[in-house]
Write a structure and sequence with these properties.
Two copies of one chain form a homodimer.
Chain A (H helix, E strand, L loop, with lengths): L1 E5 L4 E7 L7 H7 L5 E7 H17 L3 E7 L8 H13 L7 E6 L1 H13 L6 E5 L2 H7 L4 E6 L2 E8 L4 E4 L9 H17 L2 H13 L5 H21 L14 H10 L7 H19 L4 H13 L12 H9 L8 E5 L7 E5 L3 H12 L2
Parallel strand pairs in A: 2-9, 3-4, 3-5, 5-6, 6-9
Antiparallel strand pairs in A: 7-8, 10-11
Helix pairs in contact in A: 1-2, 3-4, 5-6, 5-8, 6-7, 6-10, 7-8, 9-10, 9-12, 10-11, 10-13
Chain lengths: 363, 363
């Protein structure tokens, strides 16, 4: 018997949150030492608003580029779309020196990143995230994926972008609903790790500046940096990164039970956080006043924290399938105090059933 | 600006070359600490011969397993086959604790490894390679892939198996042609790195023991270990691993020009090595007698070292597309002395054209 040991050099992702980054794409890419060949991936909504300024900048920097424009929405996050990117890139003669540039939200980032991870065993890529959810959360951490019929993000990889360039000006065209969905993940980071974020959210609410790019920028930066700190300690979800699933056990089950139509991801997570906060009071010793305040903040952000009716069998089935569950009846991230989180293994679903009912009754 | 740095723990692959390993699959898997859920991937030819003994052993070890049987041949190495595996695994409730077990040659290993690399962002996997090519070469090094219409292995990843269990008894049912194809890669390892392998091949030839499992075992082990040593220094083909492409520049172009039908991979590489040996005499100072001896050894192994006719435009186009080419007119691995190799950047194709013609004329 012999053993092959593979050591990989550490990966580095540059994180920048600044206004106007999209319009400086050309020099930013040149500064990475990448190119001269670039393949842009975007969707038609984002592309209409932001591709022109990106392209002008690339032209001025002398970059040669191709561009693939996807239909907006979750349905583009498929193996079929990945195959479409492969096909285009192969026709364009892409090789390992080609830089993939994702311009868009979570769907575009996940798909472009997955195709980049698997084309020629890995193309370098960067992302200009254009939703609050992607800037504050999804673009950091290297998770890329496409959906299968049997499950969201079931096919994927860890493939860290060389850089995440978050331009808060791109948030101007986001719908209020999509924006609020991003606020849910911002609030989550406050609850599990950085309570100052919750205080900042409350202040921006009071000042009516939640959608002010200059005002939200420091919060995006705080979330991205905190996530980077956590991911650096646990890329593969074996330890501390799991704490970022606060609100996601119930959230994922709600999304799955409702067929991913009724709730945005952030909305489902908001309801999930309300459940997790109440569970935390009952099972983790969280002070009930803090829990109520945090729940109230979510609702003031315009996020749902109640259920219209008792979730049915599909919800409980989805919960049982959740891959974060492990061998206990329920494995769930709870918060002993705001700003802290821990994985709890619960022997039964009894408490969760009560909590879920409380979210319906108090609605 | 901040920077996210990802450090990954070193990967470990256990390499064992021993007779009877397939029939001990159950305890071998149990000893890895894997399971209890296993998904076997094989093809109908290999499966017929070797799956029963593997399955019995797994049953005795109390493992639960599913099995997917592919059609034999390169056409199974597709995104469509990968999607079929995803579908089956999802239905079976596979998660990150499920171990994928590949039983077969290069096609099965590449496909199962690719599907394992991408399902749930990476399932652990092991391989029982059943061809000489896979045991001596392809199963070591973590390269997994599927083919696109536009190119072989265009979609892939680096995903090292936890273990490579090479059982030389599985070579008994291999056709002579497939066996010789594997000998080409064995000879290649001798030429670029371990000349003792060439001496051993010559001895087994004299003794008529080339297909004797006990006799070939030490050669498989030597090749696998040498490859592991090289891959440990350069997983991603940036340096020393490129030397393993000796004979492959011309070999790949021949395969592509002939539509992957006329030559097996090993046969194409054998012709490519003949070309590379002659190039080495002209461009790298290789002693002509050593080159002739090495070329003669290939032909005594039953491998082609001549071209029936001058290759046409498709060959030269494919050569120009070869991704190992870089910016020189031709980038090619040559051997200054048997057992050594180096990447040469050649400013023109002139010498190669002469060498290719010499392989036709002297045929």
């Amino acid at each position: 018997m012999s053993v092959l040991t593979i050591r990989r050099p550490a990966g580095r992702t540059i994180l920048r949150v600044e206004r106007g980054l999209i319009g400086r794409a050309g020099p930013l890419i040149a500064a990475l030492g990448a190119g001269p060949r670039v393949e842009i991936v975007t969707d038609s909504t984002v592309g209409r608003h932001y591709a022109p300024r990106m392209i002008s900048s690339m032209r001025r920097a002398g970059l040669r580029f191709g561009m693939t424009v996807l239909a907006p929405g979750e349905r583009s996050k498929s193996l079929k779309s990945a195959a479409r990117l492969y096909d285009r890139w192969a026709r364009a003669g892409a090789d390992r020196t080609t830089l993939v540039v994702a311009l868009g939200g979570g769907v575009v980032g996940d798909l472009a990143g997955f195709a980049a991870a698997t084309y020629a065993r890995g193309l370098p890529w960067i992302i200009f995230p254009t939703t609050l959810l992607a800037q504050a959360d999804a673009s950091v951490g290297g998770k890329v994926a496409v959906n299968l019929e049997q499950g969201k993000n079931l096919i994927g990889a860890y493939h860290h972008p060389r850089a995440v360039f978050s331009d808060p000006e791109a948030l101007a065209t986001l719908s209020d609903r999509a924006y609020r969905s991003g606020l849910a993940e911002v609030a989550k980071m406050g609850m599990v790790s950085r309570p100052a974020i919750l205080a900042s959210l409350a202040r921006l609410l009071r000042e009516g500046r939640l959608r002010d790019a200059a005002a939200i920028l420091p919060l995006i930066r705080a979330c991205a940096r905190e996530k980077a700190r956590i991911v650096a300690r646990d890329e593969r979800d074996r330890g501390v990164r799991r704490l970022l699933n606060f609100g996601h056990t119930v959230g994922h089950a709600l999304e799955a039970a409702e067929g991913y139509g009724r709730y945005t991801h952030g909305e489902a997570v908001a309801v999930g956080m309300a459940a997790a906060l109440r569970m935390s009071v009952l099972e983790a010793g969280l002070d009930p006043v803090s829990a109520a305040e945090a729940e109230f903040l979510l609702s003031r952000l315009g996020l749902p924290t109640r259920l219209r009716k008792s979730p049915g069998k599909r919800f409980w089935d989805a919960l049982a399938r959740d891959k974060k569950r492990g061998r206990a009846a329920l494995r769930m991230v709870l918060s002993p105090a705001i700003g802290e989180a821990k994985v709890f293994e619960l022997p039964s679903l009894t408490t969760l059933r009560r909590v879920i009912e409380s979210l319906v009754r108090s609605g």
